[in-house]
C-alpha cells in the first residue's frame, strides 16, 4: 500500500515539473547542497551510506565478495592517491577516460561523446565542482533514467587495487571526473558489475534524454543518407563503428586507417559535384584526434582537385585532427553500424534550431489486469495499456519523396540492470500500431476492446519483439489517428515501461483511458411495494425487530450462494458484510431493515447475472482480465490504475475472481464513490481531509 501511495505521490510531482533536468529528482532522496553544507559545518568528509565503500557496491558475481578479481581492493579518496587531484583539468577530454577492469567500454564511448559537446556535458556533470573550493568529499551528477532526470550524489571513495584505480581513470592519473561519473552511474544501477556489457546508445540516451535508432549499414534503407542529414539538422548525436568478431580485433587499425571496435562520431553529411555529378559525402570524427581514413575524399586526396573552389572552401578542411570526409558508399561499406540519438527540444541550445516534437508516457504491465501479451493472445491482448497519437501535418520535405507523417516510437522497460543481481533477464517487449476506428476518433476516454483491435490488422509494428532495454523504430503513416499498444511477448508478465513518441510535426498524444465515473440506477421502493412473500421471509430471518445484523447478514448470504452450483465462492466475509451495511444503512443502526435488505437483494440479483455472463468458460469464476468489462456493465467506469488495484485486492493466486469477491468489490466501489461525492461539495473532483477525517474514513474501508 505504501508503495502505491509513493507511486501516486510521484505522479503528482511529475505533473508539477519534477524530473526535468532543471528540477531533477533526488536519487535516494539525497540533496547535494544539503549534504555538502552539513559536511562543511561538521568539518567532515561525506560518506555515502546508500552506496557504501564495501564489496556489495562492486558486484555480486565476478566482482562479488569472494571473487579473485576483488581481492585486495581498498577504497581511497583522490586526495589519498595524488598530491594535487583535479576534478576537471583544462576541460574534459577523451584522454580522461581510460578503461579499467570493468567491461563497460560501451559506457566509456558514451562518456567520451560528452566531451565533444560542452552543453550536454554540463547537463550531466554540473559545473563548479572541485577538490579545492568547498571540498567536502561529495560530488553529484545527473542522468536521464526512464523518463526523468535524477541527481545522483556520491562520495569520492574509489575502489583501488595495487595502488591504482580499479575502474575508469584518466591517462595522467590526476583527473577524477570520469571515475566519479562512472561511480554515480554504478550507484543508479545497483553496483559496478551491473555496468558490464551494453550498447553505447544506452549511454547516449541516459546522458541526453534522447531516443535512439540503430541501423545495420549492410542493410541500410535507401534514404539513409537523407536520414543522416535530417538528424544532423535536428541536433542529433550520431555515432558509428566497425564491429569486431573477437577481442583480438579491438582497436586494430585497418589498411585504410580505420580503427575496429572503436566509437566514431558523424559530424556532417553533404553533397559535392564531381565533373557535374553529385557525390554524397559523410564527415566522421575519431575522438582520438588522430588516425584518419586515408581513402577517397580523405584530407588532401586527389578527388578534391576536381571540386569547385566554392564547394571545396565550404567542406575541405585539411588537418590531422581526427576529422575526415569519405564517400557515403565507402561509409556504408567500411562501417558496420550507425547509431542516431535524437534529442528532445530541451537538450538543444537554441530555440531557433529545428527539432523533434517529444511526447512520453510511463506505464505498467501487471499480471491479471494490464499484462495482456502480444496479439498472439487474443483473450488478453486488449487489456494492455493503450496510447493514441493523432497525426495531422505531413512532412515538409519527405526523405523518400512520399507524403506522410514521420515519427519514432521507442518502448523502454525499466531497471533491467538493477535486476541482474537477481538473475532476472529483461522481458521480451514490442508494440503494435492500429488505426482508430471512426466512431472512437477524437476521444481519449475509451479503452479499445478485443472487438475493435482484433478485427483489424496492425498498420505498423515494432521491427521485432526483443529482450533488450528498448525497442525503437521509425515510421511514416498517412495523417490520421492511431493507437499504440505496447506489450510483452508473453502475457502475464509484470513490468514498468516508458513509451516515447518523437514526431517531425506536432502531434496530439495521450493515453487511452476511461474516465473514472459511476452510474448507479436505484429504484426507490416503498414498504407497500415489497412483495409480501419477500416480506414474510425477511420477517422470519430478522425476527421481531425486523432488522438484520452483520453476522445474521453473512449467514443469510452464504446460505443462498452456497446453494448455487453454477458459481464458486468461499463465502461472504465479515468485512464484506460490514461494507454492505455501511453502504445501505441509512439510519446508522448498524443493521439492515426491510427496504435496505430489499435494495441489497436487487443488487445481488443484478450482479449475479453480470457475473454469469462474464464467466465465459462456465468455471464458476471470472478471469481478472474480464473485470474491466464486468464492472463497466455494473455501472463503474475505471482506468488501468484502479483496475490494477481491484485485481490486486480481489483476485486469487490464479487471477480468478469468485462471486463473493465480485460482490464485495462492487459494494466497496459504490461505498467509496458515495463517500467521495458526499465530501466533494463543489463537485470539483478533489477532496481534502484532515487527519481525524482520514482516520475515521479509513477505518471503515
Description:
By secondary structure, the protein is an alpha+beta fold. Strand 3 and strand 4 form a beta hairpin. The chain contains 20 helices and 25 strands. 29% of the residues lie in helices and 20% in strands. A 6-stranded antiparallel beta sheet has the order 7-12-8-9-10-11. Strands 17-16-19-14-21 form a 5-stranded antiparallel beta sheet, with no helix packed on it. It has 4 domains: 20-208, no CATH class; 211-342, Cysteine proteinases (Cathepsin B, Chain A); 363-513, Sandwich (Jelly Rolls), CATH 2.60.120; 539-698, Orthogonal Bundle (Recoverin, domain 1). Helix 5 crosses helix 8 (200-208) and helix 15 (574-584) runs parallel beside helix 19 (659-679). It is elongated, with a radius of gyration of 32 Å.
Number of strands: 25
Secondary structural class: alpha+beta
Helix content: 25-40%
How would a crystallographer describe the biggest sheet? 6 strands, antiparallel
Provide the β-strand percentage band: 15-25%
Oligomer: single chain
Strand order of the largest sheet: 7-12-8-9-10-11
The geometry reads as elongated
The N- and C-terminal alpha carbons lie at a distance of 14 Å
* Rg estimate, integer Å: 32 Å
Amino acid at each position: 500500500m505504501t508503495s502505491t501511495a509513493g507511486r501516486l505521490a510521484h505522479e503528482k510531482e511529475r505533473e508539477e515539473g519534477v524530473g526535468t533536468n532543471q528540477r531533477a529528482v533526488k536519487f535516494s532522496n539525497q540533496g547535494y547542497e544539503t549534504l555538502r553544507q552539513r559536511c562543511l559545518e561538521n568539518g567532515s568528509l561525506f560518506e555515502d551510506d546508500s552506496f557504501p565503500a564495501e564489496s556489495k557496491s562492486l558486484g555480486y558475481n565476478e566482482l562479488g565478495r569472494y571473487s579473485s578479481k576483488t581481492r585486495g581492493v581498498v577504497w581511497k579518496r583522490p586526495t589519498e592517491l595524488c598530491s594535487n587531484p583535479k576534478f576537471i583539468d583544462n576541460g574534459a577530454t577523451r584522454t580522461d577516460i581510460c578503461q579499467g577492469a570493468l567491461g563497460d567500454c560501451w559506457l566509456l564511448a558514451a562518456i567520451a561523446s560528452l566531451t565533444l559537446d560542452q552543453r550536454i556535458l554540463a547537463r550531466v556533470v554540473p559545473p563548479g565542482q572541485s577538490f579545492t573550493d568547498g571540498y567536502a568529499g561529495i560530488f553529484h551528477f545527473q542522468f536521464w533514467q526512464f523518463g526523468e532526470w535524477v541527481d545522483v550524489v556520491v562520495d569520492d571513495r574509489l575502489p583501488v587495487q595495487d595502488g591504482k584505480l580499479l575502474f575508469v581513470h584518466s591517462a595522467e592519473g590526476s583527473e577524477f571526473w570520469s571515475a566519479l561519473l562512472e561511480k554515480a552511474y554504478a550507484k543508479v544501477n545497483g553496483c559496478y558489475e551491473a555496468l558490464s556489457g551494453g550498447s553505447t546508445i544506452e549511454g547516449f540516451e541516459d546522458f541526453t534524454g534522447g531516443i535512439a535508432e540503430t541501423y545495420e549499414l549492410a542493410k541500410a534503407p535507401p534514404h539513409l543518407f537523407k536520414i543522416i542529414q535530417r538528424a544532423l539538422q535536428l541536433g542529433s548525436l550520431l555515432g558509428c563503428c566497425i564491429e569486431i568478431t573477437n577481442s583480438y580485433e579491438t582497436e586494430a587499425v585497418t589498411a585504410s586507417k580505420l580503427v575496429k571496435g572503436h566509437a566514431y562520431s558523424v559530424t556532417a553529411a553533404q553533397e559535392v559535384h564531381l565533373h557535374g555529378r553529385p557525390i554524397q559525402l559523410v564527415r566522421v570524427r575519431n575522438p582520438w584526434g588522430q588516425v584518419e581514413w586515408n581513402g577517397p575524399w580523405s584530407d588532401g586526396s586527389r578527388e578534391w582537385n576536381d571540386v569547385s573552389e566554392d564547394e571545396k572552401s565550404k567542406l575541405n578542411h585539411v588537418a590531422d585532427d581526427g576529422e575526415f570526409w569519405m564517400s557515403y558508399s565507402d561509409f556504408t561499406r567500411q562501417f558496420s553500424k550507425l547509431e542516431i540519438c535524437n534529442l528532445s527540444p530541451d537538450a538543444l541550445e537554441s530555440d531557433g534550431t529545428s527539432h523533434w516534437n517529444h511526447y512520453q508516457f510511463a506505464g505498467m504491465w501487471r499480471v491479471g489486469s494490464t499484462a495482456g501479451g502480444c496479439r498472439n493472445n487474443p483473450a488478453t491482448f486488449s487489456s494492455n495499456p493503450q496510447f493514441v497519437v493523432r497525426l495531422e501535418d505531413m512532412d515538409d520535405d519527405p526523405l523518400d519523396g512520399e507524403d506522410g507523417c514521420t515519427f519514432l516510437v521507442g518502448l523502454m522497460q525499466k531497471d533491467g540492470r538493477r535486476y541482474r543481481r537477481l538473475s532476472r533477464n529483461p522481458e521480451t517487449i514490442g508494440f503494435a500500431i492500429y488505426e482508430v476506428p471512426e466512431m472512437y476518433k477524437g476521444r481519449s476516454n475509451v479503452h479499445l476492446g478485443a472487438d475493435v483491435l482484433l478485427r483489424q490488422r496492425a498498420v505498423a509494428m515494432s521491427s521485432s519483439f526483443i529482450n533488450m532495454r528498448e525497442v525503437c523504430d521509425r515510421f511514416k503513416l498517412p495523417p490520421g489517428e492511431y493507437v499504440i499498444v505496447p506489450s510483452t511477448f508473453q502475457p502475464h508478465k509484470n513490468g514498468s515501461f516508458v513509451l516515447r513518441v518523437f514526431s517531425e510535426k506536432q502531434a496530439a498524444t495521450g493515453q487511452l483511458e476511461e474516465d473514472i465515473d459511476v452510474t448507479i440506477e436505484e429504484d426507490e421502493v416503498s414498504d407497500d411495494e415489497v412483495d409480501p412473500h419477500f416480506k414474510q421471509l425477511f420477517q422470519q430471518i430478522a425476527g421481531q425487530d425486523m432488522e438484520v445484523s452483520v453476522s445474521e447478514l453473512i449467514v443469510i448470504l452464504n446460505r443462498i450462494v452456497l446453494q448455487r452450483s453454477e458459481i464458486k465462492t468461499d463465502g461472504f466475509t465479515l468485512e464484506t458484510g460490514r461494507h454492505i451495511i455501511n453502504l445501505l444503512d441509512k439510519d446508522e443502526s448498524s443493521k439492515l431493515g426491510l427496504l435496505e435488505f430489499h435494495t441489497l437483494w436487487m443488487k445481488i440479483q443484478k450482479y449475479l447475472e453480470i457475473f454469469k455472463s462474464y464467466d465465459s468458460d462456465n468455471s464458476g469464476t471470472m478471469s481478472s482480465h474480464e473485470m474491466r468489462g464486468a464492472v463497466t456493465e455494473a455501472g463503474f467506469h475505471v482506468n488501468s490504475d484502479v483496475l490494477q488495484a481491484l485485481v490486486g485486492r480481489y483476485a486469487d493466486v490464479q487471477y480468478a475472481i469468485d462471486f463473493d469477491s465480485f460482490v464485495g468489490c462492487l459494494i466497496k466501489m459504490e461505498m467509496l464513490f458515495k463517500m467521495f461525492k458526499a465530501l466533494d461539495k463543489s463537485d470539483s473532483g478533489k477532496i481534502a481531509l484532515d487527519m481525524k477525517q482520514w482516520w475515521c474514513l479509513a477505518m471503515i474501508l
